[in-house]
Design goal:
Blueprint: E1 2-7, H1 14-27, E2 32-37, E3 52-54, H2 66-90, E4 95-99, H3 105-112, E5 117-120, H4 130-140, E6 143-146, H5 149-156, H6 160-165, E7 166-168, H7 185-194, E8 203-207, H8 216-229, E9 234-238, H9 246-258, E10 265-269, H10 274-279, E11 283-286, H11 295-302, E12 307-310, H12 315-318, E13 326-328, H13 333-345, H14 348-366, H15 368-387
Parallel strand pairs: 1-2, 1-4, 2-3, 4-5, 5-6, 6-7, 8-9, 8-11, 9-10, 11-12, 12-13
Helix pairs in contact: 1-15, 2-3, 8-9, 8-13
């Protein structure tokens, strides 16, 4: 079986790491994955060991120069569809797996070539686009994937046809790669030295591409509150500056300076050594205002890093509040700060019990082999249904 996995963003992030890990597992089950990437900006991700294609004109809606982009998109659409159809046919693709509701062009190509579509709804769909894209997804998709039970209820409300097509498939994490036993005190010291940080400071971090949905404003505001009570605390934001939203980056720099945190908040840019970075943290914070099932949060839990996460998307299905981490309301930096400070003042045995429970939960519910097995069964059932 061959699957064409279509991701709108060419820049590596959590969804790319997850898709690659699943593809490696599926390959052992005789399911080969090919990747189709759109292009937004910056360096393009190349999935190691897998064939990939880049198509620059599959994104219809963009924040930067929206009118110019839309005109270019429409002008290129016949060629784009023709090219995608050729890719699907020449590579004998059996299933087209589309990541994101706004990533509808590969779905159109799949329909034109008669291939079934698995459509993952994991993005932020602006309200004006919902009347356009939700019916399209409902009509074209063989199966719609969402990454949490709460998201299925939210996205399919009032749409019984979409409810019937929708399957819950959480994100997963490669527990063989994200294993704390492989990263001891030496790794922790090395990363902190690279960042110019003391070995014994309270280090609070987040791993997010720098966009406004990730709630980094609230992370920095929480940092100010934490710093006032733990003067030695330091903070790190790991993630690339996005050319698509430079104004937000500038806002974060100004906020950091206004709060007197210029020497305390470090923006590292994109890093590939995510497990090593996590091993250096005392607390991981996910401050997002919108999410589905964030991979970075699962990775932190797998690495036995204490987590604080906002109650968005499927976070409350991932983190058991008070047992495997703390779940706080979004847009409330005071709540984030208090949760972080609770960790810093709690007995070590209590914190160890929580992170051990988090790791066990990851292994039981979110390990990549379990998620990939569910995906494999889904693909096989779709192919069998098409053969009847």
């Amino acid at each position: 079986m061959k699957v064409l996995y279509c991701i709108l963003d060419n820049r590596c992030g959590g969804p790319h790491r997850l898709a690659h890990a699943v593809a490696l597992w599926l390959r052992e089950q005789d399911i080969e994955t090919l990747f189709l990437l759109g292009y937004k900006a910056g360096e393009t991700w190349h999935p190691d060991g897998f064939q990939s294609f880049v198509c620059r004109r599959i994104q219809c809606f963009r924040r930067q120069s929206p009118v110019f982009n839309f005109i270019g998109f429409i002008a290129a659409l016949p060629y784009t569809l023709s090219r995608l159809c050729r890719i699907i046919k020449s590579n004998d693709i059996d299933i087209v797996h589309v990541d994101g509701v706004t990533n509808f062009v590969p779905a159109l190509a799949a329909r034109l070539t008669g291939r079934p579509i698995v459509w993952l709804y994991n993005d932020y769909l602006p309200r004006p686009l919902r009347p356009l894209l939700m019916p399209l997804m409902t009509k074209l998709a063989s199966t719609v994937l969402v990454q949490g039970d709460c998201l299925k209820r939210l996205y399919t409300e009032g749409n019984p046809k979409l409810w019937d097509k929708t399957v819950v498939l959480h994100s997963g994490v490669d527990t063989a790669k994200f294993t704390p036993d492989a990263y001891g005190p030496d790794s922790r010291r090395r990363i902190r030295q690279e960042l110019g940080l003391p070995a014994d400071c309270l280090l609070v971090g987040t791993i997010r591409n720098v966009n406004r949905f990730k709630g980094l404003t609230y992370f920095i505001e929480a940092a100010g509150r934490i710093k006032s009570r733990v003067p030695s605390a330091k903070f790190v934001i790991v993630g690339r500056k996005l050319d698509t939203d430079p104004g937000y980056w500038d806002h974060l720099q100004q906020l950091t300076e206004q709060l007197g945190l210029k020497q305390d908040v470090i923006f590292t840019g994109f890093r590939e050594d995510v497990p090593a970075v996590l091993s250096a943290l005392d607390v991981f914070v996910l401050a997002s205002i919108e999410e589905s099932c964030p991979v970075a949060l699962l990775e932190a839990m797998a690495m036995k890093v204490p987590v604080v996460a906002t109650d968005v998307g499927a976070v409350s299905e991932m983190v058991l509040h008070g047992r495997t981490g703390f779940v706080v309301p979004p847009r409330e930096p005071d709540a984030i700060a208090e949760a972080v400070l609770t960790y810093s003042s709690a007995p070590g045995a209590q914190v160890r019990q929580m992170v051990e429970a988090a790791r066990q939960r990851i292994e039981a519910e979110f390990a990549i082999d379990k998620i990939a097995w569910q995906q494999k069964c889904l693909y096989e059932s779709i192919v069998r249904a098409g053969d009847k």
